[in-house]
């Protein structure tokens, strides 16, 4: 579940925002109204996205400076919330490169759209250059932020941590991602996902399979087992697989 931090000094608006987020299927990691509270929260909790009011009363930091500090400590999507949508305010906030804006009063559908836009925009701006091997008209990129995939399921974005993935199997231009309890069909091919997961415990063992080393239960000649799944080790991938296995 996507975890969201709220930075808002008006209690009624903060509570309304929290209730709406929960109704949309998100988790609220915390509600802060001053920068000291934000800094304390960030030292104790991890969030996936922050919704931050630009104008905060009674604080010597405004939302723009708080957003800059959040980006420094936990690089994540930022959505600015403001009752003032004038050009001067927007231009000042733009220095932080926020991923979306919400203007008070907001509607539920506007909030949902802003969150989805922010996650997608942040993911695209931080993707590695090698992902360009996936043609833009071939598949829609699946957002991958800080070791988490954000997978669209109807009106919700579901967070799947890379460490929880057992294997990913090619399915044409798409890929089937499997965890212990769920399966997802991703609109990204296996090559694109392999690049996203580089640096994690994943290795290509077959032209159709990308597996997580941490979940391998057994290896028998040219076959490995993860749970009840029997996954072949392709000839051209065998040497690299055993080399990586020896390094662990």
Account of the protein in words:
The protein has 248 residues and is of the alpha/beta class. It is 32% helix and 31% strand. It has a five-stranded parallel sheet with strand order 2-1-3-4-5, with helices on both faces. The longest helix is centred in the middle third of the chain and has 19 residues, at 108-126. The chain is elongated, with a radius of gyration of 21 Å.
What does the secondary structure layout of this molecule look like, with pairings?
Elements (H helix, E strand, L loop, with lengths): L2 E5 L3 H13 L3 E6 L2 H10 L4 E5 L9 H11 L4 E5 L4 H7 L6 E4 L4 H19 L17 E2 L2 E6 L2 E6 L3 E7 L2 E6 L3 E4 L3 H7 L5 E5 L2 E4 L5 E3 L2 E4 L2 E4 L2 H13 L1
Parallel strand pairs: 1-2, 1-3, 3-4, 4-5
Antiparallel strand pairs: 6-7, 7-8, 9-10, 9-13, 10-11, 12-13, 14-15, 15-16
């Amino acid at each position: 579940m996507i975890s969201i931090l709220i930075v808002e000094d008006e209690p009624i608006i903060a509570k309304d925002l929290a209730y709406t987020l929960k109704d949309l299927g998100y988790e609220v990691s915390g509600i802060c109204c001053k920068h000291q509270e934000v800094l304390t929260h960030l030292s104790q909790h991890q969030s996936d996205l922050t919704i931050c009011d630009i104008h905060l009363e009674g604080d010597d930091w405004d939302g723009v400076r708080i957003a800059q500090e959040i980006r420094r400590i936990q690089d994540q999507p930022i959505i600015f919330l403001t009752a003032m949508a004038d050009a001067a305010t927007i231009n000042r906030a733009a220095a932080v490169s926020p991923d979306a804006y919400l203007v008070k009063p907001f509607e539920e559908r506007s909030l949902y759209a802003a969150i989805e836009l922010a996650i997608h925009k942040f993911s695209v701006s931080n993707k590695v250059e090698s992902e360009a091997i996936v043609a833009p008209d071939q598949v829609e990129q699946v957002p991958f932020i800080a070791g988490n995939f954000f997978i669209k399921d109807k009106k919700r974005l579901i967070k799947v941590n890379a460490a929880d993935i057992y294997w990913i199997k090619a399915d044409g231009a798409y890929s089937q991602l499997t965890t212990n309890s769920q399966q997802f069909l991703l609109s990204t091919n296996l090559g694109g996902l392999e690049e996203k997961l580089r640096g994690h415990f994943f290795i290509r063992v077959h032209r159709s399979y990308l597996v997580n080393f941490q979940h391998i239960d057994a290896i028998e000649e040219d076959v490995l087992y993860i749970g009840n799944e029997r996954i072949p080790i392709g000839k051209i991938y065998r040497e690299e697989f055993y080399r990586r296995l020896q390094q662990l």
